[in-house]
Specification:
It contains 26 helices and 17 strands. With about 625 residues, it is α/β, with parallel strands linked by helices. The protein has a seven-stranded parallel sheet, with helices on both faces. The protein has a seven-stranded parallel sheet with strand order 13-14-12-15-16-11-17, sandwiched between helices. Helix 11 crosses helix 16 and helix 19 packs parallel to helix 26. The protein is globular and about 80 Å long.
Length: about 625
């Protein structure tokens, strides 16, 4: 059934349901145009790539046609905050405003749901330490009253407390339909609800796990949909890189070993095998920080063969053996990457991990996602680079998608100022970052706190953040030191003059309208580290195909990230503030003009006195 475009257009009239239901609703022509374009793509079963800048109202623009449609629809987001906002706030309000009834379900990844089976096994295991037992008992008490088993409703983060692996199940650990707790499993209940829903809200990680064929008893099974609406679509390539690749860690092997040992403990007659396994694991873990994967493989094969030798004793041991085979395959893939993939290692000592990823995500997404017989709507506030979709098209593998662009309604000329100083030295000429720290302090005193200070590296954050904390009269919240990400954000929102110092995770998906956020400071252009093996492989592939690696990949990616960071500042028509990029290379390098073209259309100054004057007028 075709959507009634005129009815959708009429829903946005100020005197219609949305205008009555939402206090302060403002009619936005660009929002209505976008809603009509989305409805048209849904009707045609086509692909739409749409950039809707901050303030356009893209969420409402896709919720309205989604609620009018009779198709089965999946809405996927990158951030948990937007996912929860859609289900708990936006959908109920829009449904009420329009008088429409569609069944909505929220489906998250496995790590978000309690696994009753693993929780009980952990509590009855003699291997759990007393400190962990205390927290496990708190989880069990909560589990007796929870409605859906979603760990977001629990008063503390189970992973921060160190018991996450004991109360959740990975795809490898899940028993599926054969689990004794299957009937009361929160994940299975959520999946059942999703199967029955008209609209399912999920996240890119779950969608791409499904697309990567991680299905069956171990997988993330999503039903078929007629329409896929992918919000925060700029993040899809990076998520795809993770899910179509491989990650092998020391922790993954330890978890496998612990699960195997627990099953052997239940049998009670495999003491000799347990000793053999413990010896092999000890040798593997001792060699992990100082050996190559090829050198570790023979020791792993001992563990795998031992597990396979007992596979026939029970269904659970068969699953453990299958998991060992998969880990063995991952060893092989990492040692000898297939064509089109690159492998590398990162971290040190116990934190050393091995990774494999596709060099190009476009072809992988085209094969596993876009070929589905469905309509796809991809939206973000930052899909374009230098007013073109070329970079996003390449990374997404969408050469034939229709394009749409909708500018922000904000008056940046009045609401904002961009500060680009010329005097900040390069990191190499100021290793202690004294000049940078002094400049940030001066800016924060001008704005009276109320700022995000976004760093491109943990090293810079850890060096500058504590100094600011000691100098400033306001609360300085430092990522990794001042609590969890959510706790830091909540404190920042309620403490008006506080300062938040963070890295990449705060560059996107954070919405702080109002005076609490009146300045965004970015320490330097967010270029990816040039020694990143995946980046190096992408640059090589680009130049083999006749492209320019710096222009087509490094600069385009840095601009895309910068636009995300800049988008944190002005979130409503009443907001005001300054965006500062403390990177003198914007004046010294030829790409400076290109970067400036991609910033919001606000006045640009190199004079900090103009920043102070801006705040005097605003305050």
């Amino acid at each position: 059934m075709s959507l009634d475009i005129e009815r959708i257009r009429g829903d946005f009239d100020p005197g219609a349901g949305i205008g009555r239901e939402f206090p302060g609703y403002i009619y936005r022509d660009e929002q209505v145009k976008l809603a009509c374009e989305i409805a048209d793509a849904m009707d045609r079963g086509s692909v739409l790539l749409a950039e809707a800048e901050t303030g356009t109202g893209k969420t409402m623009a896709y919720l309205v046609p989604a609620l009018h449609s009779r198709d089965r629809i999946l809405i996927s987001t990158h951030t948990r905050a937007l996912q929860d906002q859609l289900v708990h706030r936006d959908f109920p309000a829009v449904k009420k405003a329009l008088g429409l009834k569609r069944r909505i379900a929220l489906l998250k990844g496995r790590a978000n749901y309690l696994c009753p089976h693993r929780m009980e096994k952990s509590l009855t295991s003699g291997r759990v330490e007393l400190w962990a037992q205390k927290w496990l008992l708190k989880v069990r008490d909560w589990a007796e009253t929870t409605f859906d088993g979603d760990l977001a409703g629990f008063p503390f983060d189970v992973f921060e407390k160190g018991i996450g692996p004991q109360v959740t199940a990975t795809a490898e650990q899940c028993g599926g339909a054969k689990c004794p707790e299957y009937e009361r499993c929160p994940l299975m209940k959520a999946r059942k609800k999703a199967q029955e829903a008209d609209i399912v809200v999920t996240n890119h990680s779950l969608l791409l796990a499904d697309a990567a064929l991680k299905s069956g008893d171990f997988g993330e099974v999503l039903p078929h949909f007629d329409v896929y609406i992918l919000d925060e679509a700029h993040a899809i390539p990076d998520v795809a890189s993770q899910h179509f690749g491989v990650q092998l860690t020391r922790l993954r092997i330890i978890q496998w070993f612990n699960d195997l040992q627990a099953l052997l403990d239940e049998l009670g007659d495999e003491m000799e095998l347990k000793a053999v396994l413990a010896d092999a694991l000890k040798r593997l873990l001792e060699a992990w920080p100082k050996s190559t994967l090829a050198e570790l493989l023979p020791v792993w094969q001992e563990l795998q063969q031992a597990a396979e030798s007992r596979a026939e004793r029970s269904e659970e041991l068969t699953k453990i053996a299958d998991r060992a085979v998969q880990i063995g395959r991952d060893f092989d893939l990492l040692i000898t990457p297939a064509a089109g993939f690159v492998g590398w290692s990162e971290g040190e000592g116990e934190n050393l991990r091995y990774l494999l990823a596709p060099v190009e995500t476009g072809p992988v997404l085209a094969e596993h996602l876009w070929e589905r017989p469905a309509a796809f709507v991809l939206l973000s506030a930052t899909l374009r680079v230098s007013e073109r979709f070329d970079y996003a098209r390449t990374r997404l593998g969408l050469s034939d998608a229709a394009e749409a662009f909708h500018p922000s309604p904000f008056d940046y000329g009045r609401q904002a100022l961009i500060y680009l100083p010329k005097h900040i030295p390069d990191y190499r000429n100021d290793p202690e970052l004294r000049r940078l720290t002094d400049e940030i302090e001066s800016l924060l005193r001008a704005s009276q706190g109320r700022a995000f200070v976004l760093f491109t590296s943990w090293q810079a954050l850890n060096r500058v953040g504590p100094v600011l904390e000691g100098r400033l009269p306001w609360n300085v919240l430092i990522q990794g030191k001042s609590g969890s990400r959510d706790a830091i954000l909540e404190t920042f929102r309620t403490d008006t003059h506080s300062v938040l110092c963070g890295t990449r995770s705060f560059w996107e998906g954070v919405d702080v309208p109002g005076e609490a956020l009146s300045m965004v400071i970015i320490d330097r252009m967010p270029f990816a580290p040039p020694n990143d093996p995946l980046l190096q492989a992408r640059l090589k592939r680009c130049e083999e195909q006749g492209g320019n690696g710096f222009r087509d990949i490094q600069l385009s990616e840095a601009i895309a990230v910068l636009r995300q960071g800049a988008g944190r500042l002005i979130r409503s028509v009443s907001d005001y503030g300054v965006m500062a990029i403390l990177d003198s290379r914007l004046y010294q390098k030829s790409y400076g003009r290109e970067v400036a073209r991609n910033l919001p259309p606000a006045p640009i100054t190199a004079d900090i006195d103009e920043v102070r004057s801006f705040y005097r007028r605003a305050l």
